[in-house]
Amino acid sequence: MNEPLLEVKNLKVHFPVNSGPFTRAKEFVRAVDGVGFTIAPGETVGLVGESGCGKTTLGRAVIRLVEATEGQIIFEGEDLTRLKGSALRTRRRRFQMIFQDPYGSLNPRATVENIIGEALDIHHLAANAAARRQRVENLLQDVGLDASHAQRFPHEFSGGQRQRIGIARALAVEPKLIVCDEPVSALDVSVQAQIVNLLRGLQREHGIAYLFVAHDLAVVRHLSRRILVMYLGRIVEAGGAKKTCQSPKHPYTQALISAVPVVDPDSKRQRIILSGDVPSPIHPPSGCPFHPRCPVAEARCRTEVPALREIEPGHWVACHLAGGPAEITEKSSGRTETAPRAGA
Amino acid sequence: MPLLEIRNLQIDFGRGPSALRAVDGVSLTLEPGKALCLVGESGSGKSVTALSIARLLGSPPARYAGGEILLEGRDVLRMRAAELRSVRGGVVSYVFQEPGASLNPVFRIGNQIKEALKLHRPEAATDAEVVRLLKLAGIPAPEARIRNYPHEMSGGMQQRAMIAMALAPQPKLLVADEPTTALDVTIQAQIIELLSRLQEQLGMAILLITHNLGIVGDIADDVAVMYAGQIVETAPAGELLKRPLHPYTQALMNSVPSLDSEVQRLTAIPGAVPRLGAFPAGCRFHPRCARAQAECSQKQPVLVEVEPRRWVRCPFWNATGLNINPGTARQQDPSQVLGQALRSGGRGER
Question: What pTM was estimated for this model as a whole?
Fold first, then answer.
C-alpha cells in the first residue's frame, strides 16, 4: 500500500524548433524541464499553472501521448518509457485521459455508444454486442446520463453532458489513474460544480487516482490532496492542498491565489496582479525563471536558479527567499530534490 | 438621462408558430460611466441581449418582436442605416469572448486598429494614435506590437488588442461579452482590472456579460441576473453579493469554488438550463429550485421591487418556514422538460 501508483523522475520534454530533414534543431522548447512527483493509489494530485507552463504536456507525457526526452515514468512499478508496441497497449488500460475541449474530444460522427464502446473493443472487454451495450448503459448511468443517450450523437448534447461522455469513455476500461486535462475550464461555473462532484464520487467508488491539471486553483483545491504548482516547465511549489492554498510560500503561487475570483463584496484584498505574460520556453530567463515578473525578486534571483527544497515536511518550494535554512541536500536524507513524496 | 435604456425587449428566432423567444421582456438601465454586469449561464439570453444593443443580430433569423433600446435617448431598433453605422463604434463598442476568433488573422494588429480609427476618427488614423491606444490597453512595447499578427500574441495580449480596437472610436459604452472566459485566472484578473481602470480613466460605461459571479465584485456597480430569457434579479453589486435574494442567484453564488471553504462538496445546480421552446410552465426555474412550491409550476412570477433598487422575480424570495423539498430539484433531462412544456400547452412562456 505504500508503493506509489505513479512515480515520475526528472521528466523532460523538449520540442525541437525549426528542425527538418536537413537541418538539426539548434533550439528547443523546454516544455517540461526536470519534473518529479508521485501519486498514491486513489489520490488526487492537482497540477496548476498558467497557459504555456507545460502542465498539459506533462499530463500527456505521463500517459505517453507525447514522448519524453529524458526521465522515467514508473507506473505500478514499471518504467513506461521503456515499453513498446503491444506491451504498452495492454498497459494503457490502466491509465486514461479526460480532455479539456468537450466539443473536440468526441468523434462527431460516432454515436455515444460507439464512442464509449470503442474502448471496450480495443481491450476486448465485452464478450458480445449485448454485453457491450449493457456496459455502456451502466457507464452512462454512472456519470449521470441516461441509457437512452447511447444512440445520440455528440452535437445533441451540452458541453457539460459531453464532458460526462468523455468521463464515461475513460472509465470504461477501469483505469487506476486518470489524467484530467482542464476538464472543467470550458464549462459554466455551475456546470463545473456538477462535474467536479461527479469526479469526486467516482474516485470514492472506484479508487481511481487523478492527476488534475488546471489553471484555476479554486477548482483544484476542491479535489486535490496535494498540489503541484508549475512555471515554465518546472515545479516551483508542492505541498498539501489546504496548506499550499492557505499559506503559499512561492511568490507565483501567491499571485495565482490572489487571482482566483471570489464572491466577496468587501474583499478589499490587495490583488497581486502579475505584469506581462509567461516568458518563452525557448529562451527562459536566466536564474529563477519567474524573476522578471516577481514582485520581490532580488539580485540573486537573476543569476542563480533556485533548487526545489523541502522547507517544511511535505512542503517544497523553489525560491531563494522562501522558508529558512531547512535545505535538505541529497546526501543528508537520501532523497533527491525533485521527488516530493505523496502523503509525506 | 441614462446612457442605455432597454425597455421590455423581446427577441424571437424564427417566425410564426414555431418562433422561439430568446429574450422575453428584458429591461435594463445603465447610467453614463457606470458598470453593469449581466450574469447568467449559457443559454440564458444574455449575449443575444447584448448584441441587440447595436442591432448586431442577424435578422433573419432573429426578429425584434417588441420593446425599445434607447441609446442616449434614440431607439436603436428604429434607426436608419447611416445613423446605425455611426452608433456602432462611435457610441457603443464591443469586446468578445474569443479574441483569437474575433481578430482578422491575415492583417497586422496595427492595421486592424487603424481601420477602426479610419471609420470613426479619420483625422486620428495614425500610427502614433494606434500606439497610444495599445499603451492604454496595457500592451508593453506597443511600437513593436503594431506589426504583429494575431497568432503571434498570447490570448491575454490578443484581448488587450481587441480592447484597444474597441476604444479607438472613443465609445461611451463598452460591451464586453465574456471577455475573460477563455483566459487563465491570472490574465483574467489583469483584464478585469484593466476594464475597471479604463472605466474610471475615460468615464466610459461598461456592460460586462459573464457566467461567473466571482468576477462581478471587482468591477460592477450594478448586477442583473438572467435566466431563460428573463431578468430574475437586479441590485447594486455590493448588495447582491452580500445578500442575494433570488434562489437562482443564491445557487449560482454557491457554485463558485472558493479557496477558503472547508466544504468539500461544491453546490451544483441540478439539471440544466431549459432550451428555447422547452421552458417549464410557471416559473422557468422551478424544476431546479430547492424552494419551489406548488404554485411555482402554475403561475409565472413577475419582477417586483421588493426593496429600494432591488428587484426579484420570485414570490418566495423572503419566505421563511417554507416546505423545502429537495426532491423537486432533481436532475432534469432536457427531453423531459420539453415533454412537460408540450403537455402544458405551448412555449411555456406567458
Answer: 0.80
